[in-house]
Amino acid sequence: MEMVFKSKMNKILNRMEDPRETLDYSYERQLELLQNVKRGVAEVASSKKRLQLQRAKLVQSIDKLESQAKDAISANREDLARLALERKSALQQQIEVIDREIGELDQQQEKLVESEKRLSTKVEIFRTRKESIKAQYSAAEAQVKINESVTGISEEMADVGLALERAENKTEGMKARAEAIDELMEAGTLEDLTGGRDEIDRELAKISTQTNVESELARLKAETGKGSAKTDTGKESTGAEEERRSENDNQDHGRRPV
Asked: How many CB atoms lie within 10 A of CB 105?
């Protein structure tokens, strides 16, 4: 169960973590370490300087005691000369201790300076690498966003394509329906309620059309010389058609209310 929990937490942290922020934080930590090393070098140098000043004062004191011992000998004060030399010896021992401490500080300072140089080089290399990784990550992130945008546009265009296809299919269906209605109206199956023509008018129009066709046919035959024998028959037929039309008109007028 613990492994599952850690795995879940790692996935969550990976999604939340921004590598650029992590790299910047690591760089700041390395700069702090470098500053600590530099501060250590400065403190060692300051301590060495204080010891050197202290040593210089002891040397001055030793010179003074040496002079005092000489003056005491000249004054036949051997006791004073001995006291001055004893103090001189004590100061010389202090100088030896200070010299050892200064030597140790020199070694520490050299080590710290070398550490500072190595750490400075590492920090600079890390900074260069960090900026390179950040640039690559930003470029990859931008590419991902572009690809996601392109994918979204492609999906949207696919939806638009389906909508266009449905609209085209619906348009074709409406056109086919309109053509079918026109054909039914022309055939007389459906009445055109917007027009003033009824069934009788349509029948009369058909008869008139047929009569005109027969007349045109007879004319063409007469002009070509092939229908001279049937011209009279055509005329009689035309006359009969006109009589039938007259009778139909009279009957139609008889049925209409006055």
From this structure: 20
The residue ranges of every structural domain in the chain are 12-154, 199-255
Q: What are phi and psi of 226, to 5 degrees?
A: -100, -10
* pLDDT tens-digit map of 163-202: 778 888 888 888 887 777 777 766 656 555 555 555 676 6
Q: What is this structure's pTM?
A: 0.45
- The reported pLDDT for the residue numbered 141 is 83
Query: Whole-angstrom Cα distance, residue 45 to residue 110?
Result: 10
Per-residue pLDDT tens digits for 98-107: 999 999 999 9
CATH of domain 12-154: 1.10.287
Q: What is the dihedral of CA 123, 126, 127, 129, to 10 degrees?
A: 160
Q: Report the C-alpha gap between 117 and 119 in whole angstroms.
A: 6
- For 60, the enclosing helix (H) or strand (E) is helix 19-74
- Is residue 175 within 8 A of residue 189, CB to CB? The reply is no
What does the angle CA 137 – CA 139 – CA 145 come to, to the nearest 5 degrees?
Answer: 100
Query: 65 and 87 in contact (C-beta within 8 Å)?
Result: yes
- The CA distance from 57 to 68, in Å, is 16
